[in-house]
Amino acid sequence: MGCVHCKCCSRHPKPSSEDPEEPRKDDPSGKYALTERSIECVPVPSHNFRLEYSFLTQRGYYPDYPNKENQDSFCIRTNLRGDPNIHFFGVFDGHGQFGTQCSNFVRDRLVEALLEEPSLLDDPIKAYNSAFLRTNQELHESEEVDDTMSGTTAITVLVVEDKIFVANVGDSRAVIAVQAGEDVLAEDLSCDQTPFRRDEYERVKACGARVLSVDQVEGLKDPSIQSWGDEESQGNDPPRLWVQNGMYPGTAFTRSIGDSIAEKIGVVADPEVSVVHLKPDQLFFVVASDGVFEFLSSQAVVDMVAAYSDPRDACAAITGESYKLWLENENRTDDITIIIVHIKGLSHAGVHSAEGVNRVIRPTISKGVKSSFGPSITSVSEIFTSVRRGDGSDLHSCQCSISMNRSPAIVVPSPTHGWGLKSHLWLVVWESTNKSPLWQLRPRITSCSSSTALQNSVIVEVRSG
């Protein structure tokens, strides 16, 4: 969810007489390419385990805004302060007219602000709070980015030896997978900050916000009813924040970085921070924008990751499923960004004695509404990436990373054939040994169209690794 003027304003689907454009063979930007990502691996020598991770970002499909950029960005930094035991993962979901600029600003600045905090190792929670508020203030003061009605959410994970510190502002999410017998269970590391939460609702109301759904603001429903059920059932018309005498800003979240007008009614940049002592039964964690979690539960995401040994496959499968579910429920998709981090080789011998998961949620809200070292950088151990931007003709691009060790073939539609299919995308990964599909993304496609698609496809062999 975002602001009412941006990606959430199309909650009432409009009929479209045009199909999205098909990929162009001569597209110079490469937006239609299936880009291959390697698995990155960084050691945590203090406790003799390693992190294996991959990531994927996909621009949303916005039929009413064909030139809309991908407003998601992400940051992965390893060996912070030259220490091989400290690593950072973050996803930033921008919103508003200048959401891309806000997202990129925070992507670039937040980790640097965190590194500059003298309390980073002694008190990471304090350092996180200070870094978020400092970044927020710098964004307000920036002459290059207008954050009056724009901003970004931020979900970040800081690995410090055998602990992870998760700082969240907004409605993106981090989840960890826990082995429980034969089951793999999802445990949320963050809690979405929206008016559905009673504590957040009461906080923003105390700051002067009106909390109403769009239907209530438009007079279609009784505004005196201050109960909206839950996010599962009311996600298509969620409660939003409005100034007392205006129809703005309409944010569906209660915290963000930026959004200087919304800040006056309680939309603050103070993060909620959780702390987890890693244990051998914790298999991996996921950091993703709400483009993933809008229609997929935390458990569904964990189940999909657990089904793949390779995080690249899991990134592709989750992105594809999210994309498909968006199109089944709405006439657009959100931007989708996901980072998957496997925890490998952590043993009981390398873990400090601790009973259960030591989790601490410590939100610290500022009273007002105002708002020496460097990391080692190598081409393998550090990735500092923003999403690729679209340029108008890309109504339905897919930048999935689908490189596996099973030597599959990737089947994509040939741009030289205009089949005119309603499915805006056909993407299948086939196991070369038994010719059976391993993963498919084929929204709204019939068996007849399937046959036509296969007859007009290009087979691309992908070598192992």
From TrEMBL:
Q: Which UniProt keywords apply?
A: Hydrolase, Magnesium, Manganese, Metal-binding, Protein phosphatase
Q: Is Coiled coil included in the keywords of this UniProt record?
A: no
Write down the Pfam families for this protein, in alphabetical order: PP2C
Q: What is its EC number?
A: 3.1.3.16
* Superkingdom of the source species: Eukaryota
Q: Where is the PPM-type phosphatase domain?
A: 52-343
Which SMART domains does the annotation name?
PP2Cc (SM00332)
Tell me what reaction this enzyme catalyses.
O-phospho-L-threonyl-[protein] + H2O = L-threonyl-[protein] + phosphate; O-phospho-L-seryl-[protein] + H2O = L-seryl-[protein] + phosphate
Q: Does the keyword Magnesium apply?
A: yes
Supply the PROSITE patterns for this chain.
PPM_1, PPM_2
Q: Name one GO molecular function term.
A: protein serine/threonine phosphatase activity
According to its UniProt record, which cofactors does this protein need?
A: Mg(2+); Mn(2+)
Annotated region Disordered: where? 11-30
The text of the family note is: Belongs to the PP2C family.
Q: What is this protein called?
A: protein-serine/threonine phosphatase
What's the source species for this entry?
Trapa incisa
